[in-house]
Amino acid sequence: MDKLFFKPDHAWVGDLIPYYENGTYYAYYLHDPRITPGEFAEQTTWHLATTKDCRKFRYQGEAIARGGDDRPNKNIYTGSVIKKGENEYYAFYTAYNADIRIHGKSVQSVMRASSTDLIHWETDEDFLFVADDCMYESFDWRDPFVFKNEEEGNYWMLLAARKKGGGAHRGGCTALCKSRDLVNWTCEEPFYAPEMYVTMECPEVFRMGSWWYLVFSTFSDRFTTHYRMAKTLDGPWEIPKDDVFDTRADYAIKTASDGQRRFAFGWIASKAGNSDYGPWEWGGTMVAHEIVQEEDGTLRVKPTEAMKDFYDQVWPVKDLCYYHCTAKEEAGETTIQSETLGAVLFPVPEQGFELELTMIPGKSAEAGVALHTDTGMENGYFLKMDLSGHTAAWDMWPRSVQGAYQWQIKGDVPCQVETSRKLPASDTYHIRIFREDDLCVLYINDCMAMSTRMYDHKGGYGGIYTVGGTASVSGYQIKVKSI
């Protein structure tokens, strides 16, 4: 069955290692079988799914096997793929075995595998690269990203690392190592050390036009993927005003390009117990956004063309209903006004649809989109737009199971704060919502993505709402997949 988003049967997608060649994106990923309940990224190997449009994936099975219980690569984690010669490919990956100690510590190390076809890989058992334990700590040494530095004529490796003696909470850095043959590596001064995070996972650099970009993921200050920008690899690395691609739900994003377009591959985390109230877990379902470069060098994301083409049959929007508001309809636009909370709503499918609409908030304290709610607005999900603070976040009602007392409903949690994003500067918001199973990916003005999970509410109504003001909606359309 054709799906909008990719997840293997009986397993989950962890960190992505995308690579492009000859019209095909090779989406290597950490395949997490979740063998033991409550444990994640154990007995992890690289698996492969290939795609030509970053939406329809062909599962290719295991790409790199893990070693035995007595080998450093008992567990295989994130890395990168590089081409050296004709049909000569190398994958550098993180190896970890808690029972093997180097420098007296359980450490992460880098191992290497080779391939001639990008499908079949064999690990070089003699290659093992560990931190020097002088400049860098040996217990944070993972996620190698290897690329050719054309100006220096050598290879660079970036790693999620920690300066020796660095603080436990802000000592994370991006390490730099260099090599001329992809075999012998030297440790250099850190590539980027902002002294801000516990660690900076899954580092990557790439160039678009006249700008270089550094991408990395964090789980301390914010659980998300960031980017930095600079005119040269030597920096200085600027922090853009909006330095993320998506919400907390879409983690460990890495990119790949065909030379014309670049795509951001990540995973939308699952939640424990398949419930809205469950905590976020490690691993989930693959998603890809297209990256667009603005004139000032900043980056934004939008849906891929293949995503927009997936749902292809118009589902009639009818039976509009109104909650606590006055309404006016004119020239295909519906405007509502309310002194408190008001909404215009229409039925939406159970799941498996695309909802598109254009919204003008007007002069409101708050406005947004309701999804899978009821006519009394008692339950459901809400894209909550703070118009004065220029932010948006997902909210849900109820926010928790009520406790013994009526007031124990998380009234002090204003929204799902981990999904908060900065709103683009605009008076009008064009919104696309993609729903499949328990996944929801939303785009605003083809500028930003807001991914999340939605387990507990389906069907019902969707629409727009306003608090203490007006809001208008037009161009609303629902599409489903034709049979």
UniProtKB/TrEMBL annotation:
Cited CDD domains: GH32_EcAec43-like
UniProt protein name: beta-fructofuranosidase
Keywords associated with the record: Glycosidase, Hydrolase
PANTHER family for the chain: BETA-FRUCTOSIDASE
Domain Glycosyl hydrolase family 32 N-terminal: 6-299
SMART domains given in the database record: Glyco_32
Entries under InterPro entries matching the protein: GH32_Enzymes, Glyco_hydro_32, Glyco_hydro_32_N, Glyco_hydro_beta-prop_sf
Entry similarity comment: Belongs to the glycosyl hydrolase 32 family.
UniProt keyword Transferase, yes or no: no
The enzyme's E.C. designation: 3.2.1.26
Enzyme kind, highest EC tier: hydrolase
Coiled coil residues, start to end: none
Keyword match Amino-acid biosynthesis: no
GO MF entry, a single one: beta-fructofuranosidase activity
Pfam families according to UniProt: Glyco_hydro_32N
GO biological process, one term: carbohydrate metabolic process
Species this protein is from: Enterocloster aldenensis
